[in-house]
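Annex B, item 7. Sequence and structure tokens for protein A, then protein B.
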Amino acid sequence: MWNVLLSFSGLVALTQLLFLPFFPESPPYLLLQKGDKAGCLKAMKQLWGEGNYHTEFDDLMKEKAITKGTKIMNVLEVLREPSVYRQLTTMLLLLLSLQLCGLSATANLHESIIPYVSLGVSISELISVIFCSSIIDRFGRRILLCGGYLLMALILVLLETSLLLSDRFLWMRYFSVILIFLFIIAYGIGP
């Protein structure tokens, strides 16, 4: 019944994808990143209902004033910054722990290939983190979430199909591994 369990995560992602367009953008994102004051207030009213949100809005304006002179760093600048080493170490440990989740076993591969698949999983995670951190400010979270969920749904359908055909065609097992890598990248970019 592992295939039912695997498709359950696709069902959850599809449900989130269907409802995501109906939610407003984050008020801090609208104000701090896009500079949209009216959109920020509208999002606050949509999220929290009618009320007076001037205190929260003023707090966001103060934060915007404080961060106005702050330079946004790229990935290499963040890696060189000593003050974030502890957070980077924690993130790397979490990313490397994905190797123990069992994705490599779903493709029904020979044991000698599984270490390479684990290495590929780690590389896929690294690619997704670098790629996502460099494009999130340009596209915003909503587009990345919607696109990530759409890609994940498509990849899960292809993965299920390739796993069903892996007994008939040996090369489908390797195609399944590629789909697992793509799923990890889509998950890292989106959700």
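Protein B:
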Amino acid sequence: GSPRRLLLVSNSTLHGGGYLGHCQQHIQSFLGEKVKRVLFVPYALHDRDAYARIAREKFESLGYGLDSIHESCDPVEAVRKSEAIFIGGGNTFRLLKALYDNCLIQEIRKRVLEDGIPYMGSSAGTNVATISIHTTNDMPIVYPPSLQALGLVPFNINPHYLDPDVKSTHMGETREERIRQYHEEPNTPPVLGLREGAMLLVEGDKATLQGVTGARLFLRGKKATEHEPGTDFSFLLTDSNLQNL
């Protein structure tokens, strides 16, 4: 089995709470006592210094030191020495471009998939953990060399998933319609719509939905299905299984 350990969070801030407040117990349980320092990747936001300060304050309050990769003169070496990686939210295109520009795609993959260090993502950081960023909600403000992402899981995620508002007069596509359009293209993988307050815990070949809200699963050619916290999504981790769904 794979040694990978992932905590993929839909959003950094839940209405009424502070930064990572809604998932801080999950973070502590996920990182445990072995991890002393976390490598933070703030590439999704323009002001990396300010972003690192916010993240550092939060992780220190939870008992972990935090180093921001943008402060390192050698980002690749920083990944190689890291005990755990946290990639924060912001613009997914900006984030993925920076990961490519700094030659970090393969390095992060190796550390997570081969060495088994914990990987945590929120929002854009969750998007880049998947096969591709095709199902991000963000505007393509910069142009990464590819939309292919880290591929730590063999499917895609739509963070901040929004259900249609029956009272809304907005005539644009709903999130569900946009994901369906994605699945009109051939050979497109499943998409897990993670509502705000939801997260996916991946431990080896086991994936479990956690948090306070549910998720919606979209499979190409099938009707979307609704899932509550506690759902076992391990089947999504096996490529061969996906062909039979």
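Comment on protein B: The chain is about 25% helix and 20% strand.
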